[in-house]
Amino acid sequence: MVGITSVEVKESVDELAARLRQAKTPQEKERLQVLYWLKQDNAPSISAIAKATGKHRNTLQTWLMQYRDDGLEIMLEVKKSPGGVRVIPQWAEDALAKRLQDPEHGFTSYGAVQAWLSETLGIEAEYHAVYQMTRHRLKAKLKVARPQHRKQDPAKRQAFKQTLPTISNC
């Protein structure tokens, strides 16, 4: 018969209610709620539970099949995908972090970082990947000193820095 489940819920209603109150994630609560509804005396159909939870009935059947085959803990386990493979390996990232800490051998641009990775470490990476790693994961800002005119007098510049705090208080 469609909508009738062949899963026998082993836990009592009180146990399920207690687990529901202690559930930490929304996914865990949803799955426990399904078992709670099925354990009640006048249990609704799978289709009605699916409509109430906002999930497809096949999703609920998958959860119940996991429960029937492997138990409650496996059903409550939510798998997380590992994500994509990084283009720049961890050892290269560590070498770049070490190079960025050296004040004498800095980089003027992310393109220079990309070229250094290619020439020194043999890693071909796109500009965006280099930028993301350098700026966001390594928290490095590529700073370049402002250009100074060749005719500028260093003594006058130093004198201006000395008088700057007194002028700016106006």
From TrEMBL:
Polar residues: compositionally biased ranges: 160-170
Annotated ranges, domain Winged helix-turn helix: 111-163
Signal peptide start-end: none
SUPFAM superfamilies: Homeodomain-like
Location of the region described as Disordered in the Swiss-Prot/TrEMBL record: 147-170
Database matches in InterPro entries: Homeodomain-like_sf, Winged_HTH_dom
Pfam families the UniProt entry points to: HTH_23, HTH_33
Domain of life: Bacteria
Protein name as catalogued: Winged helix-turn-helix domain-containing protein
Annotated organism of origin: Leptolyngbya boryana CZ1
Organismal lineage: Bacteria, Bacillati, Cyanobacteriota, Cyanophyceae, Leptolyngbyales
